[in-house]
Amino acid sequence: MGRDAGITEEQLRNLTNHRESDAFSDFEKDVLDYADALTRTPATATDEQIVGLRKNLSDEQLVELTSAIAYENFRARFNRGFDVADQGFSDGAVCVIPARSGSA
């Protein structure tokens, strides 16, 4: 799905260090930072992030982005709660595991 949406192998490989990577535009880096902030416990998204995203997104687009992030976070946590295992759909594909921070 990611490849169909235009995500490159380089972006997949650099996802965990997206801020330092040339594979992402500044806007893409801001979106990834926002997604990371929204999915922390507790969520740490800031007003400054919203203001920055509004430079590139309409209110409707920002709502859609936030909804998509929240839904994927819900699915991930739901699946973890019931120990839903990988179904093998991405066998042999790049699947980068995010680095854990010391505070998580």
Strands, helices and their partners?
Layout: H1 9-13, H2 26-38, H3 47-53, H4 59-81
Report on this model:
The protein has helices at 9-13, 26-38, 47-53, 59-81. With 104 residues, it is mainly α. The protein has a domain at 24-81. The longest helix is centred in the last third of the chain and has 23 residues, at 59-81.
Q: In sequence order, what are the helices and strands, one letter per element?
A: HHHH
Q: Helix- and strand-based class? A: mainly alpha
- Low-confidence parts: none
Helix amount: 40-55%
Give the CA-CA distance, first to last residue. Answer: 28 Å
Mean of all residue-level pLDDT scores: 88
Main sheet specs: none
E-strand count: 0
Helix count?
4
Q: What general form does the structure show?
A: globular
Strand content: under 5%
Taking Cα atoms only, what radius of gyration do you get, to the nearest Å?
A: 15 Å
Summarize the structure.
This protein has 104 residues and is mainly alpha-helical. Helices cover 46% and strands 0% of the residues. The protein has helices at 9-13, 26-38, 47-53, 59-81.
Comma- or semicolon-separated keywords:
mainly alpha, 4 helices, 0% strand
